[in-house]
User: Fold these one by one.
Assistant:
Number 1:
Amino acid sequence: MSAILDVLSKRWSPRAFAPRAVEADKLQTLFEAARWAPSCYNDQPWHFVVTQRGIDASHESLLACLMAANQAWASTAPVLVLNCVRKNFSHNGKPNRWAFYDLGLAVGNLLSEATHQGLFVHQMAGFDAELAHRALSLPADHEAVAVMALGYLGDPATLPAGVEEKSAAQRERKAVSEIAHQGQW
Ligand SMILES: Cc1cc2nc3c(=O)[nH]c(=O)nc-3n(C[C@H](O)[C@H](O)[C@H](O)COP(=O)(O)O)c2cc1C
């Protein structure tokens, strides 16, 4: 791999999280990083609903929205976040087809900051978005897009039976030559 930023090369998505809570000031830095992302019309369509185990009753509700296979390991994470977007532009109310793109940029920032802070994040598409919408009281013109489990790295031995940790070394990617096309596709 060519040399890239440490926060990019060291990030990976674990399944085992430590029971240790995430400090409030560290959690805050993640959303500070997210809010500085660029967005179409600077609309900043992203919203994050943060639930912490033992603090927010809705943590269990959000956990219950996950597919069983995700629940099995995500239950080890002290923090679950529902990533949402406002679907229409705030300046004209028209559909914002870049809202998901913008949310992805904000989450990209958040992931890099999390790695810098010694935290790990595992994102999930495997959840019931309509159930989460109701459970966490999202406004009607907003959509639940993904859930993030986050916290400090845990011991894979603490994972429930049947859940395997993959290792950071197993990360695989397409070659640059497969995704970047010079001149024309
Ligand atoms: C939008 C999105 C949805 C994902 N959904 C799930 C999921 O439901 N369950 C899961 O175990 N991992 C999920 N992942 C994690 C990916 O499988 C993981 O990021 C990918 O295999 C690359 O591994 P790495 O993050 O460790 O580099 C998701 C990741 C993204 C970005």
Number 2:
Amino acid sequence: MAATIGASTEPSSIARWPYRGPLKAIIFDWAGTIIDYGSRAPVLAVMRAFGALDVPVSIEEARGPMGMSKREHLQAMMAMARIGEAWRAVHGNEATEHAVDRLYAGFLATQAGLLLEHAELIPGCLQAVADCRQRRLKVGSSTGYTKELMDVLAPAVHDRGFTPDALVCANDVPQGRPAPWECLENARRLRVFPMQAIVKVDDTTVGVEAGRNAGMWSIGIARSGNLVGLSQTEFERLGPAEQASRLERAYDELYAAGAHQVIDTVAELPGALDALERRLVDGAGP
Ligand SMILES: [Mg+2]
């Protein structure tokens, strides 16, 4: 069947495949990738939202669905057996949607207060973005935060030197990660195609999956991200063996989610982009 379709298509368009480069755009995640080493702000806000309604949750439970839009994140946590049971013990058989609405309202209020405390850039970020500009890549971005939250956060990060060409928020699209819509909306706003010319960079497994689902290259961020979940100081305080084992687990999970490359932090991005460019020249696609 493919041969028939090919035969009826103009030869000039066939000759352009496989796409051999260059890369044209990059889409950065925010927390854990560009800012907020360890992606701690959203975890604290999620934990406080549950705590305020007398259902304390662990840091691991709060980190589990990280990367999804925040309402979907809270929904996923409510669907966890332990949390559902604890919720019912305190609140009875309250309808789940209503419970998620209450949690989400608490989350938004808490998160807004925490954002500016976690707006610091991850070391090497500005140099990595400058390298992307030198490669003539357009710079997009996507986040599980809502537009209302980004209206607070983005200006603070702009003041620190990071200003993407496009910003797609959780409520700009019908469904959060791992759905590809945030990535594809970036491509549309940046006017960039094909998807094989675009790289998604993210510190969560659902973010890596979203890049793959969009047909893009996907780079995972291990050390500064959600899977290690520590500030730079906390990470550096660990012994070498503990550091290595935490990193190994994060690398494994990001590769298992479909990452083409995994790097420690955004500072290592130039080498990863070189590797992807070589794969494109060799005729490989994402
Ligand atoms: Mg993130």
